[in-house]
Automatic annotation (TrEMBL):
InterPro entries: AMP-dep_synth/lig_dom, ANL_N_sf, CapK_Type1_Caps_Biosynth. The lineage of its organism: Bacteria, Pseudomonadati, Thermodesulfobacteriota, Desulfarculia, Desulfarculales. The keyword Transcription does not apply. The keyword Ligase applies. It holds the Pfam family AMP-binding. GO terms for molecular function: ligase activity. It comes from Desulfarculus baarsii (strain ATCC 33931 / DSM 2075 / LMG 7858 / VKM B-1802 / 2st14). Keywords: Ligase. This is AMP-dependent synthetase and ligase. Residues 192-312 form the AMP-dependent synthetase/ligase domain.
């Protein structure tokens, strides 16, 4: 038995039992259910949906009132499998009236989380511990499709700490990562020296899987090509996430790391929504945990037609997300996947493409830095970072209340640490205008030198 087998079959299950978490049992269910027929998966979704709707009706003001006014019943909607009678909700509604959508009483152990604000509007929401167990199991299965299982050597090019964390938390996290053989590099402030360090670590650590923000992986690939670097031992796979993956980025990353790229799609509200299987002909939806609709002009999008992603979380009973508009765009796929999985398939994801910020000295700052940082400031309702020169950017903020001088300094210091020489001007504004296509741009960076007109 190698270490990966020992971790996944013994150490990790033991660790989860100590914490009272049923994650391994859910993983075992998911390993089987992914190959159920589409009809069987839909039947199970309807059963879970009924429980969710009954709970929402009984415990949340919004859905209690809606069911009372419409005369609809959770049983009727769930049995039909047609969610169109239910109202669509969005982030603005949840932010305006948070208590209307939260369960009272909340399930034991519920807690609050914040979205990263990749749409420019951070959301505070309630989280059911049971939902977190499902999310962990779902993401582990999705990564496993890429040959990236727990216990195998994994190198992450991901968001680093932008705010202080407690010593106890940091030590616990580091201990877990060492046991799980997970190596982390911050994707915030990627200069030539930092990128060289990542390449050197890939050769030294020999990860079986490399995981990263799409823009950070692309920056690494460009740097590797400029250096003429090739991995001494190519990883088994590369997993991209947090941002949309464009064809040219996939090609660059695969050439640089000599490994196939697997795209994932998720968000903070639900974690992994969909991921590519070994066939890589689309992204399988995590249908045991989520009901995912793709709507074009309010109706289900046809195969290949672009529509908005709308998600219902079947297991978050602390704050039921029912027909929640994510703001992302996707295309449903036609027909089943050759892999034999009955899970619904998305042809591709379009949305949340965050520009890279280019700082003096060649440093690169992924657009995800700003949602990661600014979600922690309660005064900020919306934001947009717009770079106007290599040495300067504006951070436009729509405020709920005055932003204190202390908070301004914290933001400035975090940016200075990640991108020395890049000055930021924080500007309160009344509103942040969307693009002509109606989308929000969270970061607007300068194009690469070679791409400028």
């Amino acid at each position: 038995m190698n270490y990966g087998d020992f971790w996944s079959k013994a150490l990790f299950p033991f660790y989860e039992r100590l914490r009272g978490r049923p994650t391994p049992a859910i993983q075992a269910v998911l390993a089987q259910s992914q190959f159920f027929s589409a009809d069987e998966l839909a039947r199970r979704q309807r059963a879970d949906l009924r429980l969710l709707l009954e709970h929402a009706k009984a415990s949340t003001p919004f859905y209690g009132q809606w069911f009372a006014q419409t005369g609809q019943s959770p049983e009727q909607i769930a049995e039909s499998g047609d969610l169109s009678a239910l109202p669509l909700v969005d982030k603005a509604m949840l932010m305006a009236h948070p208590d209307h959508f939260r369960a009272a009483p909340a399930p034991p152990g519920s807690y609050q989380k914040r979205t990263g604000g990749s749409t420019g509007r951070p959301l505070v929401f309630a989280m059911d511990p049971g939902s977190d167990h499902w999310r962990t199991a779902v993401y582990r299965r999705g990564y496993g499709w890429a040959g990236c299982r727990e216990g195998d050597r994994q190198l992450y090019l991901w968001g680093g700490d932008v705010a202080p964390v407690s010593t106890v938390y940091r030590l616990r996290r580091e201990a877990f990562r060492r046991l799980a053989r997970m190596r982390f590099h911050s994707s915030f402030g990627l200069g030539p020296d930092q990128l060289d360090a990542v390449l050197a670590d890939i050769d030294r650590f020999k990860p079986l899987c490399v995981v990263g923000y799409t823009s950070a992986l692309d920056a690494l690939a460009r740097h590797a090509a400029a250096r003429g670097w090739r991995p001494k031992r190519p990883p088994r796979s590369v997993i991209s996430g947090a941002e949309a993956l464009r064809p040219q980025e996939r090609q660059r990353i695969e050439r640089a790391l000599a490994a196939p790229v697997f795209e994932t799609y998720g968000c903070r509200e639900f974690m992994l929504i969909a991921a590519q299987c070994p066939e890589r002909r689309g992204l399988h939806v995590s249908a045991e945990n989520l009901v995912v609709e793709v709507l074009a002009e309010g109706r289900p999008a046809r195969p290949g037609e672009l529509g908005e992603v709308v998600v219902t979380d079947l297991h978050n009973f602390a704050q039921p997300f029912i027909r929640y508009k994510t703001g992302d765009l996707a295309r449903p796929a036609a027909g089943p996947c050759p892999c034999g999985r009955g899970l619904p398939l998305l042809e591709g994801i379009e949305g949340r493409i965050l520009d890279m910020i280019r700082a003096p000295g060649g440093r690169l700052l992924p657009g995800e830095f700003f949602p990661h940082l600014l979600k922690n400031f309660d005064a900020i309702a919306e934001f947009q970072a717009r770079q106007d020169s290599p040495e300067h950017l504006f951070i436009d903020v729509v405020l709920r209340q005055e932003l204190s001088q202390t908070d301004r300094q914290l933001i400035q210091r975090a940016l200075a640490a990640a991108a020395p020489g890049l000055a930021a001007e924080i500007r309160p504004v009344e509103a942040i205008a969307p693009t002509p296509a109606g989308k929000r741009r969270v970061t607007i960076g300068l194009p690469p030198q070679g791409d400028r007109p």
